[in-house]
Amino acid sequence: MPTTIDGASLPSRSKLSSLDKSHIQDRLPRLTPRKKAPPPQNTFPVPETLPLPPPAGLSHFSFHVPTRRILSPHDHELFQASPTYSLILSFVFSLSEAAADQRISSIHDTRVPDILEKVSSILSAVEETIDQCPPVDQGGSRFGNSSFRDFLDAVASHSSSWHALLGITFPSAIAEVSTYLHNSFGNRARIDYGSGHELNFITWLLCLNRLSILPPSTFPGLVLLVFPRYIKLMRKIQSTYYLEPAGSHGVWGLDDYHFLPFLFGASQLLHHPYIRPLGIHNELILEDDGDEYIYLDMVRETRTSKSVKGLKWTQPMLDDISGAKNWEKVEQGMRRMFVKEVLGKLPVMQHFLFGSLVPASEGMSKEEEVGVAPEEKEKEGGEVTIDQDEVRHVHRDDAWGDCCGIKIPSTVAAAQEAKKSGEEDGFRRIPFD
């Protein structure tokens, strides 16, 4: 019997059910399987290795002491569009490719060229100079030690004889090439060190290549023999003179001081049969293979120099990169970083030096024309804006103000002071006092 309300009949339960189903089906969206969102794509292309141009004859060069030429954002833009920019990229990436899938010890499988032995002997002579310029007692201070300036003076005094070993005899050529070597060990005024000084060392090698002293056949040895020797030398300089990390980013970078070891090291591990990027968290891998692969050696050094254990706290970027699927992804990322974070950063490149072997482009500013003192005489060392009336230092809106040489005590200095006081086995105070 149909149900009625106030005399009106209602549809039966079966009819109501069929009406509700059809009504709901029309209104509900169609169910579709949920798909995993694709990972974000990096729109910045992987920089390619451009052909390295052959060296020009000596008559092509007019040697002079290199100076800064990137004194404004416009100068930086001119540099990034210049043949010198392409030359640096080509040289660095050619070095990286020369070390692909090569262990450090593999360099000894063949005869090491005599010229590489001579370059290594210069680095050994620099190390001996450290012993001649011991650090002064700073009463426990963990900032840069002033004896570092004596060390740089001693290096400069031996420079002519060292470069004569390489076959460079013209005084003007020695003056130009040696400037890059002198600036490979840190800044004299600020007593700090960063990726810009590391770039000076690579530019020194590039100058020797432009003079036909280091042909492409020596590139594997430069990465596997000379560059690790330089890194070990820098560790001794950093720990002896407490060089401060250049800039204020430190912990947010790959390393407090270096960048290129991670590019070259990723190339070494490109197709390794069992070591994966996550392997940097395995102490056994670091211990067994750290002497053969630059990347692992850098991670091992980081772990021993920090008081806090765990890369996610001390080097979070390295920790993130370890999640990459393979070393090819890591190597591609390092190429991008070199372009964007080293050559592409004005606070780094404003200190770069240009001579005749690594020339500046037409239209780039000159120190003497705009009234800027040479960097060794400039204490602030920041970005320069060229106005009509004056040259003044400014901060950029997209930077942290690290271009002014903010004093950051190094963890290396903290470790050395802890050893002196017998506290190396315990936790160390954060070195910001």
Main β-sheet, spatial strand arrangement: 1-2
Shape: globular
- Percentage of β-strand residues: under 5%
The SSE order reads: EEHEHHHHHEHHEHHHHHHHEHEEH
Q: Spans of 5+ residues with little confidence (pLDDT < 50)?
A: 380-406, 426-433
Question: How much helical structure, as a percent, in the residues?
Answer: 40-55%
- The helix count comes to 17
Instruction: Look at the structure and give the mean pLDDT.
Output: 84
Q: Roughly how many Å is the radius of gyration?
A: 29 Å
Span between termini: 91 Å
Largest sheet: 2 strands, antiparallel
Counting helices, strands and paired strands, the structural category is: mainly alpha
Q: What is the number of beta strands? A: 8
Can you offer a commentary on this structure?
- The structure is a single chain.
- The chain has helices at 13-27, 73-80, 83-98, 114-132, 147-165, 171-182, 195-210, 219-241, 260-268, 283-289, 294-305, 311-314, 316-321, 327-343, 346-349, 367-370, 411-420; strands at 4-5, 8-9, 67-68, 192-193, 244-245, 353-354, 384-386, 391-393.
- It has 433 residues and is mainly alpha-helical.
- It has a two-stranded antiparallel ribbon with strand order 1-2. It has a two-stranded antiparallel sheet with strand order 3-6.
Write the layout of secondary structure elements.
Layout: E1 4-5, E2 8-9, H1 13-27, E3 67-68, H2 73-80, H3 83-98, H4 114-132, H5 147-165, H6 171-182, E4 192-193, H7 195-210, H8 219-241, E5 244-245, H9 260-268, H10 283-289, H11 294-305, H12 311-314, H13 316-321, H14 327-343, H15 346-349, E6 353-354, H16 367-370, E7 384-386, E8 391-393, H17 411-420
Parallel strand pairs: 4-5
Antiparallel strand pairs: 1-2, 3-6, 7-8
Helix pairs in contact: 3-8, 4-5, 4-8, 5-6, 6-7, 9-11, 9-14, 10-11
